[in-house]
Amino acid sequence: MIRQPAPKPEILDRRDAIVADLRALLPETGVIAEAIRLKPYETDGLSAYRQPPLAVALPETTEQVAAVLRYCHEQGVRVIPRGAGTSLSGGALPMEDAVVVGMMRMNRILDVNYPDRFAVVQAGVTNIGITNHVAPDGFFYAPDPSSQLACMIGGNVGMNSGGAHCLKYGVTANNLLGLKAVTIDGEILDIGGSHLDAAGYDWLGLLTGSEGQLVIVTEVTVRILRSPEGARAMLGAFKSNEIAGACVDAIISSGIIPVALEFMDRPAIHACEAFAHAGYPLDAEAMLIIEVEGSVEEQDRLLGQLSEICRKFDPISLKVSNSPEESLAIWKGRKGAFGAIGRISPDYLCMDGTIPTSQLPLVLRRIQEMSDSYGLKVANIFHAGDGNLHPLIMFDANDPESFRKAEHFGADILTLCVEVGGCLTGEHGVGVEKRDLMSVQFKAHELDQQRRLKSAFDPDWLLNPSKVFPLPEAA
Amino acid sequence: MIPTSEADVVAAVADAAAKREPLLVQGNGSKMGMLRPVQAARALSTSGLSGISLYAPKELIISAQAGTPLQVVENTLAEAGQYLIAEPPDLSAIVGASPMPQTIGGVVATNLSGPRRVTWGAMRDHVMGVRAVTGRAEIIRSGGRVLKNVTGLDLCKLLTGSHGTLGVITEITLKVLPAPEASGTLAIRGLDAVAAVAVLSDALGSPYSVSGAAWLPADAAMRVDGLEADGQSVALIRIEDFAPSVDYRIGRLRDQFGLPGMTVLDTATSRAVWRAVADARPLAVGDAVWRVSVRPSAGPAVLQAVRDHGLSAFLDWGGGLVWLSGAADETVHAAIEAAVTRSGGTWMLVRAPDQLRQVVQVVPPEAPALARITRQVKASLDPAGILNPGRLYAGM
Question: CA of A356: which chain B residue's CA is closest?
């Protein structure tokens, strides 16, 4: 279990007064303090960790966020920003003495500008909500994390979320133009705008992926893109991870950058097939899903070239979609991966490291050895184009020993990712989950420099404390 | 000082910090005419740190020491059929500060991107890792050598475009991509700025992945070889992809617009024309050059607002990037500031004599709350204030 700093007794003692003060700052239903109603806020997508907060504040405007933060700053109250609570790294895990600031009531789309290709949305708008809003006019918002039906754009900014299509379109940071954000002392910052490239320091870049350590984001100006004429997928099944990995190299070397290039290993194929009946080849050791975009003729040409490349790697099977329905069927298993693993195991940890793609065969071999030695099953899903690996470690949360082993197994995988030249997290964030592994990737003075940057925004360390940075040893 | 190792950079910075002696941090100095002049007794050049340290074409990654000439990086990539999609410009013709070739460190430290920025992102979007020596004389790393990385605060982005004021960048890792097989450009003659930007906006809002959208008024078009402008303005719309896709997509756009005065530039001409656009060569370079970024539809309004100042101008990024050149005059600068502020954008003074760049805001001032954070962040990385003091903001 993760170590958390002790709550401040003087804050716990003043709980009722703090709740009353917050109620004075927000609309009538904007503060939650009853134990039963705090329950939904006690955890996030990393549900193994739970802690009810002191209270939950649900502001409806940037000014209300500013008022709440100013108050918390004056009173020395810790603050946990929260969007939809889908973080897989425990980024929204509360603390006993902290106020959760939930952004879900700020869920309006404020402006859509097609000639200039941007939309201004409040932080609590869901990721899919943006695309759904502009899709009738032929546009979309590119980053597409798996949780896109639920996750909110404010959280996407906080974690710099990615998705299956970021090989072509980039991650959240590459798709933003501006932010409205509030500092812990209640100052409202306007960063960027509807134009490209700030002339001063790149605050947009620093705040994106800062995991609630620096500010609370209340409004986001996103770039919206015109949808391609069409998209189609193909599936290739191979005899080993090495062969599928070599095929990925050959695809990238050919000059084709597919819009998505997903890799699944044998356990992932089997789990997804049992769940989704997508027609995946059960005799394969590894499988690639490749998607291309363009007109029908362009799709035909690219899929033809890709098939030719795949054929050089002695595939067990190749299936090229001929219609949107067939593409959907190919994606069906992959998109249901989390549900599929959930069906064969009571609980799982979804890890998120990045590795140089050349290291994939080695890393998968070592993960299998670890799986054998820990006695826990693992399935691997890999954004093959950009090296982002998602091992899903299966365990039983009712068995503390099983959970302990799963945590160690996950830490071993991430340490391996760093050892082979990669990093601890590609798109889920450090959160509380990988906090204590940060010293594997960074030297002490490098972490100290990052801490100084946090202090420049939040000198009293009230914003989302105990995440990202390892706790002081003596705490 | 031209250190030849990162350790020597550390020693030089440590020495300067101990003496609280400002350093002019630069690569080959090709952009020293940009922004505010730095008052420093000594210069620290990264030009002695040179060479490609890692190139993994199959992983779309290249690492180079900061002083490596950009051209060396681009040549290395070209041999493997790859390129830098952010299309960094060569502004030597307009900044004119040094005859030496620009370094990759200089390109990243200034975050300068070319016409493809409008669709495919800036240099900062492709910086995957940096090593830098801070004003504390500490070597820090951010990012790494993989394409997707959200581990810790993103100092790659903070250092990119910080103009050497937060750290001396010593090594950079970039995301690279396969270079497109073909380039084609639809040239539309005779449109005024407003009509042109409407067409560029339609093109950028089409499903055809337009990778360049510029408008050159008649005099600017005359300065670009291959355009055959015949005294007319030219709107340029670029597609880069496999050759059949370029033909198909240009054909679709041509049909969609159905305007008189349309021609198609072949791959070689298209590449040469866009090189000129990237490098701002359509400008008649006066004593001062401004690079303005606004939302694309506001570009024509900026041109309109400054029309009485005799400026040479053209638009890139679908109208959002406004290049302006003319007299180095405070009145002209004030007019540009006012026009950009009204449109909600940003400006950068790219070239001017010292007497102008010392007295005007070379980039927009920040609101007080953000300015305070800027000072604190600067102090956290450079507590003695020795790295390029005054380059972006007076007194910092």
Answer: B146
Number of A–B residue contacts, CB under 8 Å: 245
Contact B154 A191 (CB under 8 A): no
Q: Are A39 and A52 contacting, i.e. CB atoms less than 8 angstroms apart? A: yes
Long-range contacts of A277-280 (CB under 8 A, 24+ apart): A278/A329, A278/A330, A278/A332, A278/A333, A279/A319, A279/A329, A280/A235, A280/A237, A280/A333
Tell me the two tokens of residue B174: 């970039």
Enumerate the residues of chain B whose CB falls inside 8 A of the CB of residue A442. 141, 152
For A211, the token pair is: 């995991």
- Interface probe for A, chosen from B62, B142, B151, B342 (most Cβ of A below 10 Å), is B151
Q: What is the pLDDT of residues B360-391, one digit of tens each?
A: 999 999 999 999 999 999 999 999 999 999 99
Residue of B nearest to A188 (CA): B369
| Closest CA–CA distance from residue B50 to any residue of chain A (Å) | 22
Q: Which fold has domain A1-227+442-475?
A: 3.30.465
Determine, for residues A449 and B380 on separate chains, whether the beta-carbon distance falls below 8 Å.
yes
Nearest residue of A to residue B349 by CA position?
A: A199
Q: Pinpoint the residues of chain A covered by CATH 3.30.465.10.
A: 1-227+442-475
C-alpha span between A152 and A146 (Å, rounded): 12
Nearest-CA distance A474 → chain B (Å): 22
Label residue A298 by pLDDT band (50, 70, 90).
very high
Q: Tell me the angle at which helices A400-419 and A360-374 cross, rounded to the nearest 10 degrees.
A: 160
Query: Do residues A247 and A313 lie in contact, with contact meaning Cβ atoms separated by under 8 Å?
Result: yes
All structural domains of chain B, each given as residue ranges with its CATH number in brackets, are 6-178 (3.30.465.10), 182-278 (3.30.70.2190), 288-357 (3.30.70.600)
pLDDT digits (tens, 9 = 90+) for A369-418: 999 999 999 999 999 989 999 999 999 989 999 999 999 999 999 999 99
Q: What one-character-per-residue DSSP string does B32-91 give?
A: TTSSSPP--SEEEE-TTS-SEEEEEGGGTEEEEETTSBHHHHHHHHHHTTEE-TT-----
- Nearest-CA residue of chain B relative to A452? B380
